[in-house]
Amino acid sequence: MQRLGIDTGGTFTDAIALQDDGELRLVKLATTREDASLAVLDAVQELAPAGGAVELVHGTTHATNALLTGELGRVVFVTTEGFADLLAVGRQDRDEVYALEASTSRPEQPASRVVEVAERFAANGEVVQALTAKETKRVVAAVKKLRPQAVAVATLFAFRNPKHEQQLGRALAKLGVPIMLSHEVAPEVREYERATTTWADAALAPVVRVALMSLGERLRDRHPGSQLRIMRSDGGTAEVVAAVEHPVQLALSGPAGGLGAALSLAQARGDQQLMTLDMGGTSTDVAWLSTSLPESRPLQVGRLGLLARGLPIHTVGTGGGSLAHLDAGGAIAVGPESAGAVPGPACYDRGGVAATVTDAHLLCGRLQAKAFLGGDFTLAPKAACTALEELAAPLGISAAAAAKQVLSIATADMERALRRVSLAEGRDPRQAVLYSFGGAGGLHAAWLATNLEMQAVVVPPIAGAFSAVGLLEAPARRSYAQSVLQNLPTAKMRASLFAPLQEQGIAALQAEGLSRRSIRIQRKVELRGAGQAGVLVLPEGPKLLQRFHEEHERRFGYRREDAAVELVAVNLTVDGPATSQWQAKCVHCHKAKAFARYRTWFGDADQSLDSDWYQRESMKPGATLQGPAVVAEYSATTLVPPGWSARIDRWNCLVLERCS
Amino acid sequence: MSSKRDPALHVFRHLFASVTDEMGAAVQHSAVSPNIKERLDFSCALLDAAGRLVAHAAFIPVHLGSAHSTVPALLKELDPGPGDVVILNDPFRGGTHLNDVTVVAPLFQDGKRIGFLLNRAHHADIGGAEPGSMSGASDLFGEGLLIPPLLLRAAGEPVDAVWQMFAANVRDPEAAFGDLQAQLAALHRGEQRFQHLLQRYGPGSVVRAMSALYDHGAAFTRDMLKGWPRRAVMVEDYLDGPGSPKIQLRLQIKAGRLVLDFAGSSAQIPGSWNTHRAVTTSAVFYLLQSIGGGHLPETSGTLEAVDLRLPEGSIVGATFPAGVALGNVETSQRVVDVLLAAMRELMPCKFPAASQGTMNNLLFGGTRADGTPFVFYETLAGGSGAGPNGAGASVVQTHMTNTRNTPVEVLEDELPVRVTRLAVRRGSGGKGQQIGGNGLIKEIEFLEPVRLTIAGTRRASQPAAAGGAQPGRSGVDHLIVDGKSKRLTPGAAVDVPAGGKIKIATPGGGGYSRD
After folding, report:
1. What number is the average pLDDT over the span A151-168?
2. Around B406, how many Cα atoms within 13 Å sit in the side-chain half-sphere?
3. What's the rounded Cα separation, in Å, for the pair B430 and B507?
4. Tag placement on chain B: N or C end, fewer CB within 10 Å?
5. Which fold, A71-202?
6. Where are chain A's structural domains?
7. What is the largest CA-CA distance in chain B?
8. Does the bond joining A343 to the residue before it have cis omega, within 30 degrees of 0?
9. A contact residues 108-127, partner B, Cβ 8 Å cutoff
10. What was the pLDDT predicted at B1?
């Protein structure tokens, strides 16, 4: 069965198929806003015109968009007596410290659709107030009266003792709507975050289930025998029926594809630690990844924090379309406002008049008017120049000088983001390789790598549709996290904590037709010094204490060997076989041929330099070149500054290295 | 004067902020007490050689707006060298209130001191008359351990005597030690990062950027003030409690400067309700930053164009040895209320109504069944004021603080208490064309006896409305023992037996109408 990866993005739907000759075929279609499935089905049609069965792996924005726009199902929220307003109270903080009128970001659940239940556990899981059969019956009747499309149940300390939630779950099942129980959705401490996650899961269920199940049906109508798999936020996939069971796990389905692809490529290339830089039009995603211990952490969608685990994506609001302006003190500032795709940067000549980061690139010779999108789209340097002149005039500097400032500021903002995911977490960027994808990442990657003293930058092939590549190779996966919160138990006792999760995970993958032997299991523990908030994630195994203290010193700068070590949670991931499509190619060392020579500014130094421009598509594995140079490709541009060299490696990646 | 080759100012704004980001992450990850690790009641700052604020991690306004007063005060007494770390909490020698333990490290380049890093964290207890250290005192001495600027580390080595003195004076020394260690870890991290900046850009550029950012902040405020009407406005407001101390303000733009004259405010009073210059200044800093909508550079240059006239020995300009523990958290909120009221007078319809105007400080301490001591502190949210852009937000921290609550599941796991109710206090926001945000109701049952204080204001008065709208409802606190309910006196400690309960209802925000 042919495997397809299709990623729905804000502007484009990217589809990729692995062809019989081992090459990838890419189709880019405009995303159909009213019904994203239409573009997906069209893309399938184009890649599999014969109508045969396909295995479609889909990165979806359904869940993300529904959460951001609030187009959600009608949820009844059930919680412990006294806590009806749990979701409304939140963590009581406001969004912005400095704002005259405070705003908050909490689930919008009307008070009239909350049902309290008389029950209570203590912190140790002992019953304080038992849930009676009579009360259960009353609750079911009350919920029914509110005509829910889905029910979210989150009671206090359910992560410790799920008995009451289970009892409620069984009784509510007869309502025939999705019932989400907090100890199943996110068995972790902190009632507000757990309840929010459960609420989001329930609110998404009616919407996401319909959309994705109908996509599956339409796919099978046109391509009988086809299978639909959905990308989860954790970088693995699930068969559509299983995927929509807990749709909150799809909240970051889209970007997870890119990170998954980066991890798989890193495995092939042998890079153990990497940082990813995915720069788009309005924002930039960065992440720290490790191939030996892929990390999952609670997700953030908009401003809503969820306990659903996903790959650790950090987003900042600087992208190619970010607007430059003069702040009230008279200095150039960049963002957070963006020109977006419409009207877009001034140089798109579609009605945008304000200077953006992209305009600054064009003026500094880092983009060329006629070498953009393979020449399909001509940029307007004059419009860029006018916009930047306007910005520069009050400062009495040239448009070019203003452009350089804009680029320096945008780069510094991204640098701050990369520092947050690395140095702030006690990780050394010098030990990592920077993976740059998305259209604009390559314009900043080597500059950022220089500032962070990183030695190499990898720009994968098809960098502009990298998320779709990740879909092709993602394994079937389930991830589980269970709060424990006790002094570090013995290995044997830990094994008994992992056992039920493992059983559940294996059963889930076997239900998708995988054999027990093909399933890989990864066990991780989350540890902390007694009472601390900072949690360290380590692989389960021998010498845990010793490894904890070493890691503690590395991350936080000191040891606390006198304090007890607590097991905060256990994490377990089960994976089906991953299909790496990274196949080594033959390498013939040769000098690449430039197609043009332009003046280009490379950051930091004052002067622009004469630089050779190369076409990525015409470069074969083994091609080498020296900075200062620029490598243009259909949907991306990569700068190779002086002091850097570049080559195409055997995985067909463009690899930039610092010359020693 | 910046050199032509220096990078753009906002490049340094991001990079300096990156230093304080990392400091913040270090504290949060390694602190021990819930107040710091869960509620994030701490702040980090980068200061220039003169101690002027250059960058901060945006957490707690009351910490940050006062950070620039710290270094000038400590330099009067100490001349910290490389590897030294100064500790202090004396409000009249660079601190805010005693719970806010501040650590400061100088930054050196070629033997020259070119800046400072500061971390300020609210310790749940700092000794004194009552658990939590914020009640029961008539003056500063009763509020706990007073730490003048002292070396906590000298040339990289811990000064054991100071650590021992500290540990001997607080109720939960183990937690305090963990927290203090976390604060030092933050300074260490910040120093490393700052050194990298020096290597990358050269000390000349970095030092010039610090000073340029300060000047930039000053220009920002001056520009903002240009649009304000020139006429003088007078407003006054009162604190709860005996004598209803008055805060009076005359605000006027004069020669491009913002003149804030608090003449006519009450004299400082016995107890802990006074604020001193650094904290009153931080309220002004907060207001200007908020009017700037978060676009102002986070530097104390913001205050350059402000003349703050505080009568010596007044409730807003208290002098040693006035008690200030609650002034920091309560009176500072009232100073913001007064400043906002003046802005509403100056530019009608443009500014929101008053928010809850209190932090509803909840403090208690006792002994667990196993004999170990515990102390707990948290502040509670209320309603925010409605404004021209819409209704007020409900159950939200306003103005001078933005700490989170402690999750029930964390609180009950660590302390012998049971939270029995957490609810929006419906109807507490003031009515108007835009409705004020609602306050909070929180009920806690104690499983062991505790000594407890609830220190909140707006119990006797109401958060003001804007225009012809209605004010928010006052807050009210009850102690319930054996089914009998009794109103609590704000700021007075009480004994609560096992099985006793408290119910706190926090104020709503004022409504807003265009009249």
Report:
1. 97
2. 25
3. 10
4. N
5. Rossmann fold (3.40.50)
6. 2-67+207-253, 71-202, 476-575, 590-658
7. 74
8. yes
9. 111, 122-123
10. 38
Measure the N-to-C terminal CA separation of chain A; round to a whole number of Å.
48
ipTM of the complex: 0.92
Query: For residues B359 and A581, which has the higher predicted lDDT (pLDDT)?
Result: B359
The identity of residue B391, as a single letter, is A
Instruction: Choose the closest CB to B387 out of A101, A327, A331.
Output: A101
Check A92 against B443: CB less than 8 A apart.
no
For the stretch B199-252, pLDDT in tens is 988 999 999 999 999 999 999 899 899 999 999 999 999 998 778 999 999 999
- At residue B383, the 3 state secondary structure works out as coil
Cβ-based neighbour number of residue B111 at 10 Å:
7
Centroid of chain to Cα A237: 14
B 121-180 → A contacts, CB under 8 A: 175, 178
Calculate mean pLDDT across residues B151-176. 94
Q: A562 in contact with B at a CB cutoff of 8 Å? A: no
| Number of residues that this document lists for chain A | 660
Buried b (16+ CB within 10 A) or exposed e, A471-488: bbbbbbbbbbbbbbbeeb
User: B30 vs chain A: nearest CA distance in angstroms?
Assistant: 6
Q: Are B105 and B114 in contact (CB under 8 A)?
A: no
**Residues 6+ positions from B145 with CB-CB distance below 8 Å:** B89, B98, B126, B127, B128, B165, B166, B169, B170
Task: State the Cα–Cα distance between residues A419 and B16, nearest whole angstrom.
Answer: 12
Rounded distance between C-alpha atoms, residue A158 and residue A140, angstroms: 19
Per-residue pLDDT band at A373 (split at 50, 70, 90): low
Most A-contacting residue of B174, B215, B396 (CB-CB within 10 A), to test interface: B396
Question: Order of strands, edge to edge, in the sheet holding A2-8?
Answer: A24-30, A12-18, A2-8, A54-59, A227-231, A237-239
Place of tokens 């807050």: B475
Percent of chain B with pLDDT over 90: 79
- Strand B42-48 and strand A12-18: the pairing is unpaired
Q: How far is A599 from chain B (nearest CA, A)?
A: 20
Residue A602 dihedral angles phi and psi, to the nearest 5°: -110, 10
pLDDT average, residue stretch B68-91: 96
Which among A94, A328, A405 has the least Cβ separation from residue B396? A94
Residue window 223-282, chain B: list those with CB within 8 Å of chain A.
223-224
CA distance A61 to chain B (A): 30
Name the amino acid, one letter, at A626: Q
∠ Cα A433 A14 A378 (to 5°): 85
Closest partner residue to A89 among B10, B14, B440, by Cβ?
B440
For the segment B240-283, what is each residue's pLDDT rounded down to a tens digit? 877 899 999 999 999 999 999 999 999 999 999 999 999 999 99
Which CATH homologous superfamily contains domain A2-67+207-253? ATPase, nucleotide binding domain (3.30.420.40)
Q: Which CATH architecture has domain A476-575?
A: 2-Layer Sandwich (3.30)
CA–CA dist A22, B80 (Å, integer)? 66
